[in-house]
């Protein structure tokens, strides 16, 4: 067999893989669109097809049409936040090379929540845009704190040390948040509802508020795909290939922090999405971040929309917040990951 024949065969195999992944991405996008339609059509109130069509056109003359009009921003918010959390989880696992990395497990969501609580209770924060900036600041400080704590001692930032540091930080910040909010009866009720994590109160104004931060986070995260592939080879080899390891890690982490902070400000701390989604996507497309990141974003969007729909169906005529549904699914998945991975590096 000649060298040219081998080269042609390799190119053909690579082309087939790209075609398969591209087709999978298109199918996944169609599934997400289908889930969006289900989210608009299904809820605590049954809606006729005519009302669904009229509601999608902006009409609100009947109760059914009004219900559809309320579900549209809710669906859009669930898709955006789910994509943000799925993508942030994949980024964090790539940056830390930790299979247990997740905005919730590493304490980033709870850090954003604590920052918002302090802003509300101590500084009288009343501007909606300040919520986003405060949550992003809290997420960034927490991410840096957990990484520094996990890097102390022999061996540096190992997956086990990062997971333990994140879990301890999350518990501590949760207690601090309760201590900050508990004396303030005037804001305690609303804050507790937000802290559960949900998309039930989503509006187009809320979407417009967080959308610029999410778009920047999506762009930065997707542009860091090649850098994450280099980091996956190890810091020494990545540096040998000409990659600035500190800049690459910082750029990817910045994108993830933007996504986590904006998502938490919009819907509260929603856990386990960033843990489950990247693992599922690796089974489909492998470890190449050029494909893993867009697959994680779409899968995260679909998962959160589906969780929201299930929350409306399970507890009719009431609703379960999407954060509760993802916790029910995510906790057993987390236990399975721990037993299967033995907390190895990626």
TrEMBL record:
Record GO biological process: siderophore-iron import into cell
CDD domains associated with the record: TM_ABC_iron-siderophores_like (cd06550)
Protein name, UniProt field: Iron chelate uptake ABC transporter family permease subunit
Localisation: Cell membrane
Protein family according to the UniProt entry: Belongs to the binding-protein-dependent transport system permease family. FecCD subfamily.
Transmembrane segments: 20-42, 75-92, 104-123, 130-150, 162-182, 202-223, 251-279, 291-314, 320-338
GO molecular function: transmembrane transporter activity
Top-level lineage group: Bacteria
Primary subcellular site in the record, as a coarse category: membrane
Entry keyword Transport: yes
Alphabetical list of Gene3D superfamilies matching this protein: ABC transporter involved in vitamin B12 uptake, BtuC
KW ATP-binding (keyword) present: no
Membrane topology: Multi-pass membrane protein
Pfam assignment, any one: FecCD
Entry-linked InterPro entries: ABC_BtuC-like (IPR037294), ABC_transptr_permease_BtuC (IPR000522)
Keywords per UniProt: Cell membrane, Membrane, Transmembrane, Transmembrane helix, Transport
GO-annotated cellular components: plasma membrane
């Amino acid at each position: 067999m000649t060298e040219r024949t081998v080269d042609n065969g390799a190119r053909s195999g690579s082309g087939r893989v790209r075609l398969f992944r591209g087709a999978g991405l298109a199918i996944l996008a169609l599934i997400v669109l289908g889930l969006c339609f289900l989210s608009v059509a299904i809820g605590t109130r049954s809606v006729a097809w005519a009302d669904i069509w009229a509601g999608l056109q902006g009409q609100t003359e009947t109760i059914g049409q009004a219900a559809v009009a309320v579900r549209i921003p809710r669906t859009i918010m669930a898709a955006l936040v789910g994509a943000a959390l799925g993508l942030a989880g994949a980024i964090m696992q790539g940056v830390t090379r930790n299979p247990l990395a997740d905005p919730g497990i590493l304490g980033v969501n709870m850090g954003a929540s604590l920052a918002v609580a302090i802003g509300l209770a101590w500084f009288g924060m009343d501007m909606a845009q300040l919520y986003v900036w405060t949550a992003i600041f809290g997420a960034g400080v927490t991410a840096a704190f957990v990484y520094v704590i996990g890097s102390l001692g022999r061996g540096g930032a190992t997956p086990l040390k990062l997971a333990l540091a994140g879990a301890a930080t999350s518990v501590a910040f949760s207690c601090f948040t309760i201590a900050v909010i508990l004396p303030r009866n005037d804001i305690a009720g609303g804050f507790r509802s937000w802290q559960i994590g949900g998309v039930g109160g989503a509006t187009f104004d809320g979407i417009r508020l967080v959308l610029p931060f999410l778009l920047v986070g999506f762009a930065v995260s997707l542009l860091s795909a090649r850098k994450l592939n280099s980091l996956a080879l190890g810091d020494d080899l990545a540096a040998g290939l000409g990659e600035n390891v500190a800049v690459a890690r910082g750029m990817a982490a910045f994108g993830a922090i933007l996504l986590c902070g904006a998502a938490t400000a919009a819907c509260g701390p929603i856990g386990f999405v960033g843990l489950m989604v990247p693992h599922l996507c690796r089974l489909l497309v492998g470890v190449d971040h050029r494909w893993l990141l867009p697959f994680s974003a779409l899968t995260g969007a679909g998962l959160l929309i589906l969780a929201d729909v299930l929350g409306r169906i399970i507890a009719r005529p009431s609703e379960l917040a999407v954060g509760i549904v993802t916790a029910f699914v995510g906790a057993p998945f987390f236990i399975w990951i721990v037993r299967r991975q033995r907390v190895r590096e990626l």
